[in-house]
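Quick one, probably user error.
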């Protein structure tokens, strides 16, 4: 499935190859009773996983959260990722400046959050990718991810960078990134919640 993002002001469209062909509509907690994708089989055991944890998948949130707007988006994403509509997923969060290649290798899917700074990803998320890119390049290919960005006016450069880096890693976007400018509206936060829930649904049982 290909997702398209139209930028305000007639910017370039980006194309996101998304992993979520099976994704049905998922709505925030306030509008439940919609349907997450149903998987025929449960999670595949992770090689080397300790006994008793075979079924658990790990969803890692890597975020740079320097303001209340981004904190609200982070919390909405995390709440969606932890929805009780999806089982078998353990959610962890790491500030981008502390996340390591081991964190990434041990996770099965990713949520990435950042402000737009100087027309690009924040230095913190860029630093994260600089640290993990080659150590994780082969082992994490085709893992699902979702992104959320916050800017004051124009996220074009940051979106392009996120697409470029995650394409290089061969990560699969479950949907195009959520982009918010200004104070996040209720709809914006619902979109964040959905993003978290959709990535969780890619990993767990619905
Ligand atoms: C150094 C700096 C550069 C920024 N560059 C951009 C930019 O290029 N595009 C944009 O939309 N917002 C930009 N912003 C705004 C940030 O994205 C915004 O401050 C951040 O998302 C937090 O939002 P808030 O300040 O409304 O809470 C920049 C902010 C700073 C501090």
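Nope, works fine. Designed sequence:
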């Amino acid at each position: 499935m290909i997702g398209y993002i139209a930028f305000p002001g007639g910017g370039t469209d980006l194309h996101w190859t998304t992993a979520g062909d099976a994704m049905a509509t998922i709505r925030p907690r306030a509008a439940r009773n919609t349907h997450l994708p149903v998987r025929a089989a449960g999670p595949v055991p992770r090689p080397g996983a300790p006994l008793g944890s075979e079924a658990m998948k790990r969803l890692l949130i890597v975020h740079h959260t320097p303001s209340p707007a981004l904190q609200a988006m982070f919390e909405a994403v995390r709440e969606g990722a932890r929805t009780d509509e999806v089982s078998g997923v353990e959610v962890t969060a790491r500030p981008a400046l502390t996340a390591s290649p081991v964190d990434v290798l041990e996770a099965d899917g990713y949520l990435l959050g950042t402000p737009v700074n100087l027309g690009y990803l924040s230095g913190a998320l860029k630093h994260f990718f600089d640290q993990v890119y080659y150590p994780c390049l082969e082992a994490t290919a085709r893992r699902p991810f979702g992104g959320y960005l916050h800017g004051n006016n124009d996220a074009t450069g940051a979106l392009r960078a996120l697409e470029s880096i995650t394409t290089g890693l061969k990560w699969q976007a479950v949907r195009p990134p959520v982009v918010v400018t200004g104070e996040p509206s209720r709809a914006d936060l619902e979109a964040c919640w959905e993003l978290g829930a959709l990535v969780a649904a890619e990993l767990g049982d619905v």
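The two ends are 21 Å apart (CA to CA).
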